[in-house]
Specification:
It contains 13 helices and 18 strands. α10 crosses α11. 30% of the residues are buried. It has 3 domains: 145 residues, 2-Layer Sandwich (Beta-Lactamase), CATH 3.30.450.20; 119 residues, PAS domain (Beta-Lactamase, 2-Layer Sandwich); 160 residues, 2-Layer Sandwich (Alpha-Beta Plaits). β10 and β11 form a beta hairpin. It is α+β, with helices and mostly antiparallel strands. It has a 6-stranded antiparallel β-sheet with strand order 1-4-5-6-2-3, sandwiched between helices. It has a 5-stranded antiparallel β-sheet with strand order 8-7-11-10-9, with helices on both faces.
């Protein structure tokens, strides 16, 4: 691709600061990945005629339409692929630097419009590239989305305003866009098409806002005044009367025409964008669908993460996650020489409770016992349901004296508690076995096995007690 010359026109304000929709196309939120081109999904088939692409923060393609892919290949012999760096599109190092500078501004939250004239053999081709930040669900900028528009005809029109009036009139009377020339007060000096309700000669001299909806009058006057004051082109969208007295959306560019350095008139070129607005609405609906899908997937992922490590009945950790987490805690304790102990607890006579009052009552007691245990523990302690009516606790960085105090508090609390379940008043006790990390007992499995031996001794010695294994 040959080196291109370009200019950038900033939007008046970023959408984040004024809450208004930006001119032209909005940023897109998507699920695009390097393995999936979301712009070519069935949901967005109607967008394929538009030249649109998305890049990640490293300027690699996240998604693109067929129109963008085809244009790049047929006009510039460039193969567009997911994951390919878009800056490779430009053969000139200077142009790559220029485009990277524009893209970096977008990645900082700015909305940038770039106008570029790209020579193709003997004929130039003007393109307008509108770049917007691409946000993730949590409002993080993860890349950018760009829309490329063919503005060759508009550039030809603007160029025509700088030639003699006879030639200008011959050109603009044969193009479909509405072209008007106005003075600083907004009076119509020239128009290339008959306007609603007026003969051409009667329309001249009238206020240009005559054909604009009232809510856009202030915007039109502001843009005209700014064009006269700064001498720079202005762009805006309005809702105005069009063909057959129908209200239509128009994208209008106000271009100052200077003579001897002073703005004499402003030429307005209005393009009917009603159909593009409708397509934009479809795009916004697709964006909302993608956001909803993102939220659903996030919730499903979070639920799966919780479900994979949680006991569904009691809400505490399950056995599998206990062993996974224990590997990490025991390794850390060995490295820093901190004590760590396991307490295996069992409800005394739980089978009799199930047989007498039923399994639903037994489930309610398990839930309440888990709550009582959790109330006595620190955030760093790991409480899990080991299986059936057994609970296990891993207590890191705690002396044996403090372990004894903890398990005695739990044992006495449960012994004194009266469980009122489904009309029954039930008293229960627990037995517990304690094991601490030491030589020969240095893995989760060995630690639990040692605690299980101690629990067996507590049961054999009369229950409702705590036992510690002999070395």
């Amino acid at each position: 691709m040959k080196e291109c010359k370009g200019i950038v026109s900033r939007k008046a304000k970023r959408a984040q600061t004024n809450g208004e929709a930006p001119l032209g196309w909005p940023p897109i939120l998507g699920l695009a990945t390097l393995a999936e081109n979301s712009f070519q999904s069935l949901r967005l088939q109607h967008l394929q005629a538009l030249n649109i692409f998305s890049l990640d923060r490293k300027y690699r393609y996240l998604a693109f339409t067929e129109a963008h892919q085809t244009a790049a290949q047929t006009k510039f012999n460039y193969i567009v692929e997911l994951g390919r760096n878009m800056l490779d599109f430009f053969s000139s190092r200077a142009e790559r630097r220029e485009m990277k500078k524009y893209f970096d501004r977008v990645l900082l939250g700015e909305q940038v419009t770039i106008e570029k004239e790209c020579p193709q053999k003997t004929k130039g081709s003007w393109r307008e590239i509108r770049c917007f930040p691409l946000y993730a669900a949590e409002k993080e900028i993860i890349g950018l989305t760009a829309f490329t528009l063919d503005i060759e005809q508009r550039k030809q029109i603007e160029s025509a305003t700088r030639i003699n009036s006879d030639h200008l009139q011959a050109v603009i009377e044969n193009i479909p866009e509405l072209i008007m020339e106005v003075d600083r007060s907004g009076r119509l000096l020239f128009v290339n098409h008959v306007l609603k309700g007026y003969r051409l000669e009667d329309a001249l001299g009238r206020d240009v806002c005559t054909w604009v909806q009232p809510e856009y009058h202030a915007l039109v006057r502001e843009k005209l005044e700014r064009a006269y004051r700064t001498g720079k082109p202005q762009e805006y969208e309005i809702y105005a009367s069009g063909e057959n007295n129908q209200l239509r959306w128009y994208l209008t560019r106000a271009t100052p025409v200077k003579k001897k350095g002073k703005v004499e008139v402003v030429v307005l070129i209005s393009v009917d964008i009603t159909e593009k607005k409708k397509m934009l609405d479809d795009l916004l609906q697709a964006k909302q669908s993608i956001e909803n899908m993102n939220a659903t997937l996030q919730k499903a992922f979070e639920y799966e993460q919780i479900a994979s490590r949680t006991d569904t009945l009691t809400g505490i950790y399950n056995r599998r996650y206990f062993f996974e987490f224990s590997e990490y805690l025991i390794s850390s304790s060995q490295r820093y020489r901190h004590p760590i102990s396991a307490i295996l607890m069992d409800i005394d006579g739980f089978k009799q409770i199930n047989d007498t009052f039923g399994h639903l009552t037994g489930d309610d007691i398990l839930i309440r016992v888990a709550e009582l245990m959790r109330g006595e523990m620190r955030a760093s302690d790991v409480l899990a349901r080991y299986g059936g009516d057994e609970f296990i606790v891993l207590v890191p960085n705690t002396s044996l004296v403090d372990i004894r105090n903890l398990i005695e508090r739990i044992r006495r609390k449960i012994e004194r508690f009266t469980f009122q379940v489904r009309g029954a008043r039930i008293k229960i006790t627990i037995s517990a076995g304690v094991a601490s990390l030491r030589p020969g007992v240095d893995t989760p499995t060995k630690l639990v096995h040692e605690a299980d031996r101690a629990l067996y001794l507590a049961k054999e010695n009369g229950r409702n007690r705590v036992s510690y294994p002999s070395p």
